[in-house]
Design a protein that fits this description.
The complex is a heterodimer of chains A (95) and B (485). By secondary structure, chain A is mainly alpha-helical. Chain A has a domain of 42 residues: Histone, subunit A (Orthogonal Bundle). Chain A is built from three helices and two strands. In chain A, helix 1 crosses helix 2. Helices cover 39% and strands 13% of the residues of chain B. Classes of the chains: A mainly alpha (95), B alpha/beta (485). Chains A and B meet through helix 1 and helix 2 of A and helix 9, helix 10, helix 11, helix 12 and helix 13 of B.
Chain lengths: 95, 485
Amino acid sequence: MSVTAETIVSIAHLARLALDEKAIPHYAEDMNRILHWVEQMNSADTQGIEPMAHPRDLGQRLRPDEVTESDQRECFQANAPQTEAGLYLVPQVIE
Amino acid sequence: MHQKTIAELSQALAQGTYSSEELTKHYLQRIKQWDTSLNSFITVCEETALASAKSADEARRQGKAGPLTGIPMAQKDIFCTNGIKTTCASKMLENFTAPYDAMVVEKLNAQGMVMLGKTNMDEFAMGSSNEHSHFGPVKNPWNLDCVPGGSSGGSAAAVAARLVPAATGTDTGGSIRQPAALCGITGIKPTYGRVSRYGMIAFASSLDQGGPMTQTAEDAALLLNAMAGFDERDSTSLDAPVPDFTADLNQPIKGLRIGLPKEYFSAGLDPAVGDVIMAAIKEYEKLGAIITEVSLPNNHLAGPAYYVIAPAECSSNLARFDGVRYGYRCKEPKNLEDLYKRSRGEGFGEEVKRRIMIGTYALSSGYYDAYYLKAQQMRRLISEDFKRVFEKVDVIMGPTYPSIAFKIGEHSKDPLEMYLSDFYTIAINLAGLPGLSIPAGFANSLPVGLQIVGPYLNDSKLLNVGHQFQQHTAWHQKIPSQFAK
C-alpha cells in the first residue's frame, strides 16, 4: 500500500487539517516509511487472535442516566473564541 | 534545602526546621535563577504557590498536616488546573484556562502540596525529546546541548536540576520513564487505571497513565499514595483497593526472581548503556536476587502496533479541537469547513499533525482491518508474552532507553528514527503493566535508567525493588554540578 499526494489530501480532509501544499510530498514520504515499518506486523500470525482494545480487557463502566453536572455555561464559554448571548458563533452555515 | 528528598523535607517541615513558605520561596528563587537555561516551566505560579504555602503552614500549626503538606511540586502542563493556564505545550491551547482541576491536581492540593507551576512537555505528549513544544525545547541539566527526553521532559529536567523536589508526568509510550532515565531521576508509570485520567488532556486513552517523577522510589511511593485511587469520573479507573505504596519499601529482596528478556540486549542497544545495566543487575545479584533469561518473542512488533493504536486514538481524541468551543481559531474563516481546517492546521504542530494523519489513515475505510485490527491482535500477543514470563519471574529488568540523551536536533528530521527508540517502553503501555525507571549509573557522563516491570497491580513491588537498589547505591543522589549549589 503506497500513500500518494492524493491520499494525503483526502486524509487531511477527513481529519479536517489544512496542510501546507509544499509539505504534502514530505507527509507522503514520512507516512510511507512509517507504514512500511508498521507493516512488519504482517510477519506475525494473528489468525483467530481476539483483538485487544483495552489493557486487561476491561469494559467501559456504565453509570445511571442522571444529571450530575450543574450549568456552568458562562465559565465554559469564557474559553470560546467567539460567543453571543450564550451561543457559540461560527461562520454562516445555512444560506 | 534543594538537595533533599520529599521524605527528608517532610521530616524537616514536621520538626519546624523551616516553614513551607521558606521552602517555597527557595524553590521559586531557583526557578527564577536557573530556568532561563533549562526552559522546563511553561507557567510559574508564584502568587498562588506562596498562598498555598501559607495555608500549609497554617494547617501545620493547627495539627492538620500530612506527610506531603507544604511540599512544593510541579504539574505537567497536561493536567487541567482551575484558573491557571493549561496549554499542553500547544499553540492550540496557548490561552486556555482550565475551568476545573484534574483529579490528580485535586488530590495533591488536598494533601496541602504547593504547586509551583506547570512544566514544559512535547505538544499533547507526543514525542520523546521535548523538542515538539510550542514553547521551545527543554534542555537536559546534565548537558544543555542534549534533550531531556519526553514527553514529560520539563518535569524530568526540573526535578533533576532540583528546581522542584518532585513533579507529575504522564506516560502513553514511555513519557514518564524515558525522560526520567535521560535526566537521572526516578519515574513510575503505574498499572493502567491506578491514577485517574480525569482532567488529564487525552492523547491515547487506552494507554495514557499519570504518575510521579521524583528523586527516589520512596518519594514516588509517597506521591503515588496521594495520586492513586478509584475515580468515577474516569470510565476506565481501576476499582480496586489502593495499598499503602510505602508499606513494602523495606522488604528484603533476597530470592527475588529477575527476568532478563534476551530481546532487550540486541544490536540496537548502545554497549555503554548495556554495561551500566549489567552492573546494576550484578548489584541485585549481590542483594540475593536470582537472574533468569526470559523471552518476549513479539516485543519487536510492539513499536509497529503502538504506532497504529496510539495515532488512531489520538486522531479521535484530538477531533475535539475544532476552533469553536475553546482553543485556537484561525483569522477570518471563509466558512465552517475553512474554520475547522485552518484552526487545526495552524494550531497543531508538525508531530501532532503527523500522528493525526497516521491515525486517520489507519481508521479509514478499507484500511481498518489491515492496520487497526491487526495492531489490536498484536497487542494481545504482546500482552500474553508478559503473562507467560510472569509465571516464572517476579519482575523484568532492562534498559529504559537504548541510548543516553542525544543532541537537540539530532533526530528531529526523521520521525521514524525517534519511534524506533521507544523499543523498551511501549510494550508496557500496550499491556497496561506498571513500569519503573531508576538511575543506574552513567555512560559518557550522562545518566542511564534501569527499567523494572512487574505484573498488574504490582506497583508496590516495583517501588520496593527500586528502593532496595537505592539503599545500596548513590546514583539517585547525583545532581548535575551546575545546579548543585
